Amino acid sequence: MKNTFVTKERLEAIAAEWPTPFYLYDEKGIRENARRLRQAFAWNPGFREYFAVKATPTPGILKLLYEEGCGCDVSSMAELLLAERCGITGKDLMFSSNNTPADEFRKAAELGAIINLDDLTLVDFLKESIGYIPETVCCRYNPGGTFTLGATGEGFQVMDTPAEAKYGMTRPQLSEAVRKLADMGAKSFGLHAFLASNTLSNEYFPTLAQILCRLAAELRQETGVNITFLNLSGGIGVPYRPEQTESDIFAIGEGVRRACENAGLDNVAIYAELGRYMLAPYGALITRATHEKHIYKEYIGVDACACNLMRPAMYGAYHHITVMGKEHAPCDHLYDVVGGLCENNDKFAIDRPLPEIVPGDLLFIHDTGAHGFSMGYNYNGKLRSAELLLKEDGSVELLRRAETMDDYFRTVVW
Ligand SMILES: Cc1ncc(COP(=O)(O)O)c(C=O)c1O
User: Fold this and answer.
1) Among 59, 149, 274, 390, which residue's Cβ finds the most Cβ atoms within 10 Å?
2) Confidence at 162, pLDDT banded by 50, 70, 90
3) Cβ pair 351, 336 in contact under 8 A
4) CA–CA gap between residue 269 and residue 262 (Å, rounded)
5) pTM of the model
6) 28-279 in CATH: which number?
7) Can you tell me which atom of ligand 1 is nearest the CA of 197?
8) How far is ligand 1, taken at its centre, from the CA of residue 166, in Å?
9) CATH code for residues 8-23+281-409
């Protein structure tokens, strides 16, 4: 069983004011988790989490995390503008993009963001785009091959074969980029890599830290440059299934500390760009059962669809479902829980044992706080939902209103 962070009565009251479907985020959970992360890396004075904005690009969430000491990791013009409007700029911003347009480099430079270069060719392109090379710059490494550590119980990793991934530079390219950047005026360097997504192994970050520590030592020796930070990026996973165990952030922090100590690199700052770990468990998609259908299988139709949460349709991802008020009822019905899209993969659950569901029941779709709302789309003209924050004092704050048909048709030339 997975805990919901809200009761059925409270959820009904919220739904009376803001109709389903909507996303609900848990302020208490988000803050406590962010504080745990900081504690786990307190041994590293320069530690910084740059929250991966793509996971939950919602100003109310970014500001809340900023209050907890997190900067923002942004990867596009919209994300740069979003951070700027939240007042998050300068060294509080990490710009980690790929296939980057010149105007995005210009905006990142204007905001004083730390720029993370995805490719060797971007060294010259950055100079052409902004007219200079910043004093502090980061390079993204791709070691190639296969990276198997940290496999999730879901039987897949979103990205576990660096050789097949479009990101980062090869080892020889990295040496060339660093040398070139140093010749062009860069003084302080960071190294970045993201080798696997949604890992539940406490060894992923420490292993990556070892890889980057070794790389930093080699590059220092080869080129004499000053490597001041290692960006371990995202990738710490969450237990989407109730039987999975959650990552132990203190063991992860300690493992990274040991990796740095063993490499004699106790003076580098550790950065992270976590998205899922920071937000997924503290957000839920709330939807209401609207129909039941009995054909070759039993279907429950709900008022949300894959446009609101794409992960199950896209990756076959598991999201646990609690039928509110029936937490202790026997799971003696086997349902496909579906949205209303004209796409047969529009299913939040397939053959899922659940308590009997009747139209009107509220469903709490767990662990959707990251890469949930943000991956939304408008197929069949379905609208994006509202986003709400359940505050620590029990009140609810609207973070984003639901889209309207007027929003949907706004760009049309009739
Ligand atoms: C560059 C970069 N950093 C961080 C993240 C966040 O990853 P996660 O949510 O798995 O922690 C992503 C995810 O796509 C990413 O592309």
Assistant:
1) 274
2) confident
3) yes
4) 15
5) 0.96
6) 3.20.20.10
7) 10
8) 14
9) 2.40.37.10
| Dist CA 110 CA 95 (whole Å) | 12
C-alpha of residue 343 to centroid of ligand 1, in Å: 28
Tokens of 84: 């700027």
Query: With contact defined as beta carbons under 8 Å apart, do 230 and 212 qualify?
Result: yes
Give the burial class of 402: count Cβ atoms within 10 A of its Cβ; 0-12 exposed, 13-18 middle, 19 or more buried: middle
Cα(39)–Cα(54) distance, integer angstroms: 24
315 or 47: whose pLDDT is higher?
47
Q: Residues with beta carbon inside 6 Å of ligand 1?
A: 52, 54-55, 73, 96, 194, 197-198, 233-235, 273-277, 370
What length is written for the chain? 414
Rounded CA-CA distance 394/396 in Å is 7
**Cα–Cα distance measured from residue 196 to residue 157, given in angstroms and rounded to the nearest whole number:** 7
Q: So what's the pLDDT on residue 200?
A: 87
Could you tell me the residue ranges of all domains in the chain? 8-23+281-409, 28-279
Please say if the pLDDT value at position 157 is more than 90.
no
pLDDT of residue 170: 97
In this predicted structure, the answer to whether residue 71 has a pLDDT above a threshold of 60 is yes
